[in-house]
């Protein structure tokens, strides 16, 4: 079996990071557990040190893309498993996400989570990501924004730099498909914090929509530039 490095980007996850890491340690085997503390102010990094093999504390909040980039570049495993810090006990379900990559059924497995208990927003960000990925690659995705992914390290080495911020998942999917790698979506019973219908939730979804729009525009431009020069 390929060696596995789990990489968890975390920003102010003090209420959930302990349960998430404990579930990984006690119920799911990995060779290396890395937490990237993205400038947290609530002691997330200190709490993570109890469970993680390596805690990387960034000097400020640089965004999810930068945290993931930092984490996978430190990973020693042949497979990198990206998980969010708020999965709590459901993080143990990661074995189902890892299996297709270990069995060489795909190069990147993306988790499809159960439907949210409470519908948040109008689905604009997810719809934009879905249609953008289909337009750029032809791939019909059910979970374009899922951050729970198992990826062969070779894929990340080949692609190089991940996109920034909330556009990182969309960018990774587009880049992997364009490079000819096999992407599979896998139903996994993860559960995490849901974005509410309050002002904070709307602001979060607005920032996400803008970031996804920028990423898709950049991927469109990169594709046309490659076509002109290729």
UniProtKB/TrEMBL annotation:
InterPro entries per the UniProt record, alphabetical: Glyco_trans_2-like, Glycosyltransferase_2, Nucleotide-diphossugar_trans
GO molecular function annotations of the record: glycosyltransferase activity
Reactions it catalyzes: an NDP-alpha-D-glucose + (2R)-3-phosphoglycerate = (2R)-2-O-(alpha-D-glucopyranosyl)-3-phospho-glycerate + a ribonucleoside 5'-diphosphate + H(+); (2R)-3-phosphoglycerate + UDP-alpha-D-glucose = (2R)-2-O-(alpha-D-glucopyranosyl)-3-phospho-glycerate + UDP + H(+)
Source superkingdom: Bacteria
SUPFAM superfamilies linked: Nucleotide-diphospho-sugar transferases
Domain Glycosyltransferase 2-like: 5-117
Keyword Magnesium: yes
Enzyme class, first EC level, given as a word: transferase
Cofactor(s) required, per the database record: Mg(2+)
EC identifiers of the protein: 2.4.1.266
Keywords: Glycosyltransferase, Magnesium, Transferase
Stated family: Belongs to the glycosyltransferase 2 family.
The protein's name in its UniProt record: Glucosyl-3-phosphoglycerate synthase
